[in-house]
Design goal:
149 residues, mainly beta, Immunoglobulin-like, eleven-stranded mixed sheet, 1 helix, 10% helix
Length: 149
């Protein structure tokens, strides 16, 4: 019985580490890809859920592992993919926004060091309504297409 309890506690801790909430905003499964030595950019992904009756906007993000964090969306036209920087990510009321490879993402520009698989990086997200949230991103292997936790 003791082992079952300990297993459940460990599992609950792992789940909680990948979900952050403040006000009506919930952040789920924040993750980033590992980068090779010498890389100057990285990418962060997550799901933002707005459980409130008012829309919110992600206005900015910052982390100590990069000089700046930009909000990008990848657009596909005539078999060419282009990234476009946005001023904010809109999160409508009672909806979710998924940031994922090949789509919307957080671009970590001018990395201070490579991102290593298995580490956690801290990032501050600033929302128009919900305010600031400190979020831990788990670094996955290079080329990962989704979080593995």
């Amino acid at each position: 019985m003791k082992w079952i309890f300990l297993t459940l506690v460990c599992f609950a801790g792992a789940v909680l580490a990948h979900s952050h909430e403040k006000g009506d905003i919930q952040i789920r499964h924040p993750w980033a890809r590992a980068t090779p030595p010498g890389a100057t950019v990285g990418a962060g992904y997550l799901e933002i859920r707005n459980n409130g009756s008012q829309p919110d906007r992600l206005l900015s993000a910052s982390t100590s592992v990069a000089k700046r964090v930009e909000m990008h969306v990848t657009e596909h036209a005539a078999e060419v993919a282009k990234m476009r920087q946005l001023r904010a990510f809109e999160i409508p009321a009672r909806e979710r926004l998924a940031l994922s490879p090949g789509g919307a993402h957080l671009m970590l520009v001018d990395l201070a060091r490579p991102l290593k698989k298995g580490e956690r990086i801290s990032m501050t997200l600033r929302f128009e309504r919900a305010g600031e949230m400190e979020v831990q991103f788990e670094v996955q292997e290079m080329g990962a297409r989704h979080p593995r936790h």
